[in-house]
Write a structure and sequence with these properties.
89 residues, alpha+beta, 4 helices, 2 strands
């Protein structure tokens, strides 16, 4: 279960906000990382951009393995071996 807590920060003159340390830790972000803001009416979610990108990719790719005939790990391994052998030719 996800940890739930409340924290706050002050909006500065240029609209900048420092993300509190406990929130950064919960998001798994640090200096130089990017965050994504998901706005739904008056509610905003801040999420780790890398995790959000992976989530979107997983949604977009759902079902593609079966369409390609990949039913299990052995099928994937065989495909990778085949692709690697084509690259070495």
């Amino acid at each position: 279960m996800a940890q739930q807590f409340v924290d706050n920060a002050k909006v500065m003159a240029k609209g900048q906000v420092t993300i509190p340390k406990d929130v950064r830790e919960a998001l798994g972000v640090g200096t130089g990382d990017r965050v994504t803001f998901l706005v739904d009416g008056s509610n905003v979610r801040i999420i780790n951009s890398a995790l959000y990108a992976m989530e979107i990719l997983q949604i977009q790719m759902a079902g593609e393995a079966l369409k390609a005939g990949l039913k299990d790990d052995e099928d994937v391994i065989a495909l990778v071996k085949n692709l690697r052998s084509e690259d070495s030719e």
